[in-house]
């Protein structure tokens, strides 16, 4: 097996593992005892999730650029919009001008689910096609 094929398989595995970690972090956030977003427990879980999301998005965007993915800019814009909206939502909840922890979690899980099913599924298909084009 060609070294490049191993690298592409590793990329898919890394991205899948990161998605699983994000899902686990969202479950942790959802499972916090407090319904108050400004509680320390919720704030810590949310901060950890957002920090990890930044790392994941950076990794995914580097993969897209390195592989010449045609939709890389559009995909990265979705990441940017998500982080901007999630941050604004958190600030609004803390300020008491919008929603609850449950609504925040619903927003986060809804966006992540849709993004995985659409944009990330397209990216995975692109990576797999790259992988199959390297097959002897």
SSE layout and pairing:
Blueprint: H1 3-30, H2 40-67, H3 72-94, H4 101-133
Instruction: Tell me how many strands there are.
Output: 0
Task: State the domain count.
Answer: 1
Strand content: under 5%
Structural class: mainly alpha
Largest sheet: none
- Rounded mean pLDDT score: 82
* Topology-level CATH name: Four Helix Bundle (Hemerythrin (Met), subunit A)
Q: Kindly report how far apart the N and C termini lie.
A: 8 Å
Low-confidence stretches: 1-5
Q: Indicate the CATH architecture.
A: Up-down Bundle
What does the radius of gyration come to?
A: 17 Å
- Helical stretch tally: 4
Q: Which homologous superfamily in CATH is the superfamily?
A: Hemerythrin-like
Order of helix and strand elements from N to C terminus: HHHH
CATH C-level label: Mainly Alpha
**Helical residues, percent:** over 70%
* Overall form: elongated
Q: Which key features would you list for this structure?
A:
single chain, 136 residues, mainly alpha, Four Helix Bundle (Hemerythrin (Met), subunit A), 4 helices, disordered N terminus
């Amino acid at each position: 097996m060609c070294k490049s094929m191993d690298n592409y398989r590793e990329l898919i595995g890394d991205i899948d593992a990161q998605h699983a970690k994000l899902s686990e972090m969202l479950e942790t956030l959802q499972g916090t005892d407090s319904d108050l977003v400004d509680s320390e427990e919720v704030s810590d879980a949310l901060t950890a999730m957002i920090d990890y999301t930044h790392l994941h998005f950076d990794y995914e965007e580097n993969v897209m650029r390195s592989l010449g993915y045609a939709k890389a800019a559009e995909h990265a814009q979705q990441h940017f919009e998500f982080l901007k909206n999630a941050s604004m939502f958190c600030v609004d909840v803390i300020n008491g001008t919008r929603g609850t922890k449950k609504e925040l979690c619903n927003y986060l899980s809804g966006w992540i689910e849709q993004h995985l099913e659409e944009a990330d599924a397209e990216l995975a298909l692109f990576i797999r096609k790259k992988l199959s084009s390297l097959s002897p």
